[in-house]
Write a structure and sequence with these properties.
globular; 28% helix; eleven-stranded mixed sheet; alpha+beta; 270 residues; 7 helices; Aminopeptidase
Length: 270
């Protein structure tokens, strides 16, 4: 995949859509993500972790070339009450069932989870797989009707999630953390309680998110550690007249356990 440059800056499009509205792009998202996982040694990717593309309550953010031929990164928001448990429930429910009560309680007012965040090697270092996709996901959350967002974070992403307004949730796991012995991985439960106002976010991140939210489709020159990238944002969700959050929430199931066993390869950490 070759990046297009303008004025020595990469140029990409960051687009948001509901998964069931664009299955072809979902397939390109899955292919790109699988390629990245293979490159870091995760060679077995089960088909079950891709069921989100059929989930009516899954939304996708994708970073792609302007012609849509190349995919450089992506992220998703899963809404509680869809056809799947939230990824955080799948990952931690067998270790601490209290996560089910926590998600169900938040789901009554509209809750989702930011997950599946990734970027390709070609775009590494420009902030796509960290801050810019994270901001964009939070920016579109009110369009979906969400009041809160969950995230299951690796240690190196905790400061980033705090900067955009998330907080540590200590009521589950070991003061909010879970340990996967075979994966040698520590994961932390984070919640963004205030999607609308973002009062706990840093001033820089709050201003950036609110700007994206108010303008929706905009071209911005973003900078991270002296590296600049032009991002053509398309964050106005289409076909939302067919989206009914109340119906999704009414379908939310108060789980007490998982219906299926989740394999290690299915666990997704931001």
């Amino acid at each position: 995949m070759t990046l297009i440059f303008k004025d020595e800056r990469p140029v990409v499009r960051l687009r948001a859509f509901r998964a069931v509205d664009d299955p072809k792009t979902c397939e390109r998202f899955i292919e790109g993500h699988a390629h990245v996982l293979t490159a870091i040694g995760v060679k077995k990717v089960t088909s079950s972790r891709n069921d989100w593309m059929y989930n009516p309550a899954a939304f996708v953010l994708i970073v792609e070339s302007l012609d849509g031929e190349n995919v450089y990164g992506g992220a998703r928001i899963h809404v509680a009450g869809g056809s799947q448990p939230l990824p955080i429930e799948e990952a931690t429910g067998n270790m601490d069932p209290k996560i089910f009560d926590l998600v169900w309680r938040y789901a009554q007012d509209g809750a989702g989870e930011g997950c599946g965040l990734w970027n390709s090697r070609e775009i590494a270092g420009y902030g796509i797989g960290s801050i810019f996709l994270t901001r964009a996901a939070i920016a579109i959350a009110p369009q979906i009707g969400l009041k809160s967002l969950f995230a299951l974070c690796a240690p190196y992403t905790i400061n980033l999630t705090k900067s955009v307004g998330y907080r540590l949730e200590t009521s589950v796991g070991n003061e909010g953390t879970f340990y996967y012995p075979k994966l040698d991985l520590l994961a932390t439960t984070m919640i963004l309680d205030d999607v609308s106002n973002l009062q706990s976010a840093s001033e820089e991140d709050r201003n950036a998110i609110l700007a994206l939210r108010s303008q929706g489709d905009i071209v911005r020159i973003e900078e991270l550690r002296s590296k600049k990238i032009e991002i053509q944002y398309q964050l106005q969700l289409s076909n939302m007249d067919s989206w009914d959050l109340k119906s999704i929430v009414s379908n939310a199931k108060k789980r007490t356990n998982l219906d299926v066993d989740i394999k290690e390869d299915d666990i997704q950490i931001m």
